[in-house]
Amino acid sequence: MAMWGGRFAAGTDQLVAQLSESVSYDRRLYAHDVRQSIAHVRMLAKQGIVTDADADACVDGLRRIQADIESGAFGAWDPALEDVHMNIESRLTKNIGVSGAKLHSARSRNDQVATDLRLYLREEIDRLTLLVRRLQRALVEQADAHCATLMPGFTHLQHAQPVVFGHYLLAYCEMLDRDAGRLRDCRERMDFCPLGSGAMASTTLPIDRFFTAEQLGFVHGPCRNSMDAVSDRDFAVELLSAISVSMMHLSRLSEDLIFASSQEASWLELGDAFCTGSSLMPQKKNPDVCELTRGKTGRVYGDLMALLTVMKGLPLCYNRDMQEDKEPVFDAVDTYRALLQIYADMIDSIKLRAERMRAAASDPALMATDLAEWLVRRGVPFREAHHRVGALVGYCARQSKALNALTLEEMRHSVPEADEECLRLFDPERSVQARDVFGGPAPNQVKRQVQFWRSQTWYP
Ligand code: ARG
After folding, report:
1. Whose CA is nearest to atom 11 of ligand 1?
2. Which ligand 1 atom minimizes the distance to the CA of 322?
3. The whole model's pTM is what?
4. Which residues form the Argininosuccinate lyase C-terminal domain (predicted)?
5. The architecture CATH gives domain 110-155+163-359
6. Fold observed for domain 15-105
7. What does residue 387 show for φ and ψ, rounded to 5 degrees?
């Protein structure tokens, strides 16, 4: 007989039971469920709702169940008991008798599951944040090693202007820093305790919600509205949005690394441990981690969409639809965590072909803007300067000549002010050095940003 079976004359249909069970995946919440139940029963005793002896028996019994789950002695979870909550409660009552049957006083699975999920996600966010920091450190250390390593920067996937590899890497460090901020914001907003909201209208029993919220470390105390508390999953939606944004960043970085390790670019090589071979072509070394990151980004977006769609249009308060929150949430968290765990080591493993990168950055066309800015320094309005240098580039294209192969004479057709200095502008080293602006790619500016990251409290 189900724990809620009192009003039923017949048992649940076998297929309905299969459809309804969630213990096959929500059992991962067992430690949070035990922790919550311990706080809850202590509160019940403090308020005189159960005796101290009942509470002690429950606390011991719950601890034993946790140990049994962890040692394997708990045995199989029972799908007929639907979820992790009823599996644990039913085992408790089986083990300790009537004291166990008092545990669920003033509680519903609706506030219970909302509390477990927040406890679980708070912890996951802390873990994910450490991994984001670890990846940022990997980027900063590579950036430090490559403060002066030239590469072409792109717009429209066309060579644009020379930068240094360190500057490029620190762009991702910035994105990940905002990602860590989004995780922090989301954790902060979810730090309220639903427990005591009951099914949706709290309870007639004299509970102390502030006590349980404090026991469970919810910094803002109990949720202020019982109907909201059992209905709200926006903390999970918010987390999945934050993870989706960060996955988008990892996906873009992956795409860049795939390109940079292609034969066309051949600018870098990823460590063997992060690539795989082909079952057919012996020569292949494929950037699968990057490709899987790109692919799994789509999957995580799907998790976010699934959750948003489950929640859309649900009437207040709890609806069983909401049980469908867990699989997308767990999947997104697991996927993101798995990739982060790999990614930092993969960044460490990058071996650059600095000469090839430098060669790509040395195309004098990439310094056309430098010549226009040289003219601006001599008082030529930028639009005019842009036009004249454009004409010069057109001339070069027609003559099949590189900009740095022009004679002063030729240059003066379009740029009458040109002098010997102009002929020396087409040096990529000089070009990046000259971009000595806060946030720019000059090596000393990149060093400065490396120092900034190293001075962060999370940096070891
Ligand atoms: N397993 C359920 C969930 O994950 C717990 C809450 C069930 N409440 C209920 N009244 N059926 O949402």
Report:
1. 320
2. 12
3. 0.96
4. 366-433
5. Up-down Bundle (1.20)
6. Fumarase C; Chain B, domain 1 (1.10.275)
7. -65, -45
